[in-house]
Amino acid sequence: MDLTQGTIEEKTYRAKKVMLWFGIISLIMSFAGWTSAFIVSSTRPDWLSDFQLPNAFLVSTILILLSSATFFMAKQMLKKGNRQATTILLLVTLGLGIAFVVNQFAGFRQIIEAGYNFTGPTSNITMSYVYIIAVMHIIHVIVGLICLIVVIYNHFKQKYSASKMLGFELAATFWHFVDFLWVYLFLFLYFFK
After folding, report:
1. 76: how many CB neighbours lie within 10 A of its CB?
2. Were both Cys, which of 54, 124, 142, 191 would link to 107 (CB 3.0–4.6 Å)?
3. Whole-prediction pTM value?
4. Could you say which residues of the chain have pLDDT below 70?
5. Cβ 132 vs Cβ 48: under 8 Å
């Protein structure tokens, strides 16, 4: 298929999707670099091999998976023309996303209570990596939340329909990406010590 063919609207649609995927690929490369550095650093003599991830990170994982499901269902409801169900599911997704961020900070508090800070005399290289990886992910979730708020606003303005949902689809794709990225990061940090 020739990407230069079609109406201006079709070209714009394809271009925006391609730009989003370029951004996602660059994020994958960034997180691959951080997790690779984590693996390389694990050979250090001061590396903690017996650390436990905070329970709040497990709760966060459940919340983020639920938010992916509700965003998916919101898209299905929009395709069916059910605006009220779409609205409810988008708001639930937003609430779950905010709860994810709150739980991440609760996880940081649990790490600090265990005696590990990001910097200073009570810091540890292992926990510093956990902080960096989690904080970088939180930043991207916050970007996803901003996108979700824009989608909710545009939904209230009735800018989306079953045949016109580019912004909705782009936000959903990014949201699902950051959700599954967290699942990968959680499993990585849980199993690789």
Report:
1. 12
2. 54
3. 0.89
4. 1-4
5. no
